Amino acid sequence: MVAIERKFVVNGYQLAAKEWHAGAPLKVIACHGWLDNAASFDYLAPLLEQCHIIALDMPGHGLSDHKSPQASYNIWDDLLDILAVADSMGWEQFNLLGHSRGAIMSLLLTVAMPKRITSLLMLDAALPQPVKVEDTAAQLGRYLREQRRAAAKKLPSYNSIDEAVAARAKAAMMTEHTARPIVERGLRYIDGEYHWTTDPRLTTASVFKMTADHNQAIMDALNTPCLLLMAAQGLGQSEDFVNLAASFTGLKTLSLEGGHHFHMEEHAAKIAGLAEAFFHAHQHSSS
User: Fold this and answer.
1) Spatial separation of the C-alpha atoms in residues 140 and 135, rounded to whole Å
2) Among this protein's residues, is 100 annotated catalytic?
3) C-beta separation of 79 from 101 below 8 A
4) Per residue in 69-83, pLDDT tens?
């Protein structure tokens, strides 16, 4: 199934998106991971036939606009954009599907605006590893130094799409087949070379990171149906991540085979079945 390309003008800039199964009963906004884009859902979304899916290119990614020079890309900064897109669609309530960074953002939005979110499905991420509160000043300093250098920072360029695909696959530990849709959507051809459309500021340090107490407070506030699908060869290999997920007693977790982008691998069909069943099971709460 071929997706429909969409554009949304929200909060002063334009966001690109891919839409599947318009009119299907289950309303879903899908949020991709760091340095990915809406093509992250190219394999999974066509299988979710009961889901009307809007997969966003988050700001600074894919075909979406970059943020203004004074803006930032912290994980909570995009939440207003997700709500604005939902408003544009006329969706008072909707489900969230998030991968990696998109899963973390989706969880934050869910606990902050529980009346808007029917259910949340997270793919291989939930909350970031906590930092020590005494590291706050050092983190702020790193942010300031990297932001001051960001204006002059240039991302790599390539002679061919294949070269870019190979580089992305190696960096993200993906197969080239898996990486290709994301790479093709994230490139532009300028003066004989292929350049990333990504805003270089996305590669700089966050201004602030959450502590263990912040993470616990977020999970304590979670009352919306939520499921974490963990990739056995992705973050499931991280003892710290597994222990963090297990420490939240209210978080339902299921481990599946595959790497961090398992929703783009041969496991997509199984994930689609679990996702559709999960969204269906909690649809009554939005009616």
Assistant:
1) 9
2) yes
3) no
4) 888 899 999 999 999
